[in-house]
Amino acid sequence: MYIQPGSKVAFLGPVGTYSHQAVIQAFGIPSAHQYELVDKRSIKGCLTCLVNDEVDYAVVPLENSTNGNVNFTWDALRDLFHKVEHDQSKGVPVKDIKMGIVGEEFVGIKHCLITEAPSLDKIKRVYSHPQVWGQVDWWYHENLNGVEQLDCPSTSAAVEMVKGDPTSAAIASISASYTHNVPVLVPNISNSDTNETRFLVFSKEKRDKLYKGDEYNTIISFAVEHEHPGSLCRVLESFAKQNVNLSNIQSRPQPLGSTPWTYIFFLELHGHETDGEVNAALEDARVHCTEMHILGSFKRNRAIRN
């Protein structure tokens, strides 16, 4: 993906995370392509600094092939696009922000147990990102059952935590091991050899449609009248009538301050938002929504790079 020299890219840091790898896959090595990495310690922080014009791009994880959705990302998108509060610093509704998806990357996930402990029986606690535990639980329960699990903002931050402590370990990538100079005790502890995480690339500017529509995916978010029977069904039927394929639907609780047990829905579909049938489906669906946002159309990228 082309990036303008001098651009800034936010990612879930520090250096050595899988998010860092996704940035390199998307844009190349920073020094070679003359862009700046901006290390953030939360997914919401990555997206918020893009909204606030502090960076030009943000790269965040969306879902994992073993452990499913990264709800931190879905919730951050919900809060940014659907909150009714106002951004006091800019004086504009948060839901009027301009930000969109322009790409995706798939990163092969090879989790390692990283520690200065000489053996497993010396480990008293293990640190990692909360998304990781479900990706390594088979190995963990067989080899470290009962050992305390502690959440960290990222996998690389977990390795930072255990450096110099021979009673602690981290679960992270071999890249994080090299970055922080902490050895790998056990490599490849993931439940699946084909474990991968899908990342989305966000930008302030939408990219022009360069390929055929069927090479694109589009993601939208919306809300419906929860008390009206069939309201969600009518939204979905709008796409069926136009023969638009839906590949993913998610729901998350409405933002704080909303009516309890009501939801924001996220929908991923095949095609570009400017395609005739997709545009017609979106316009029809919008009639049945109380609120809808098009989060972006982006070229599908099925390459897996280990």
UniProtKB/TrEMBL annotation:
Biological process terms in GO annotation: L-phenylalanine biosynthetic process
Signal peptide (from-to): none
Keyword Nucleotide-binding: no
Regions crossing the membrane: none
Name the UniProt record assigns to this protein: prephenate dehydratase
Family matches, as PANTHER family: PREPHENATE DEHYDRATASE P PROTEIN (PTHR21022), PREPHENATE DEHYDRATASE-RELATED (PTHR21022:SF19)
GO molecular function, one term: prephenate dehydratase activity
Keyword terms, alphabetized: Amino-acid biosynthesis, Aromatic amino acid biosynthesis, Lyase, Phenylalanine biosynthesis
Residue ranges of every copy of the Prephenate dehydratase domain listed in the record: 8-204
Pathways per UniProt: Amino-acid biosynthesis; L-phenylalanine biosynthesis; phenylpyruvate from prephenate: step 1/1
Class in the EC hierarchy, top level: lyase
Keyword field contains Transcription: no
InterPro entries from the UniProt entry: ACT-like_dom_sf, ACT_dom, Chor_mutase/pphenate_deHydtase, Preph_deHydtase
Residue ranges of every copy of the ACT domain listed in the record: 220-297
Cellular component aspect of the GO annotation: cytoplasm
E.C. number(s) listed in UniProt: 4.2.1.51
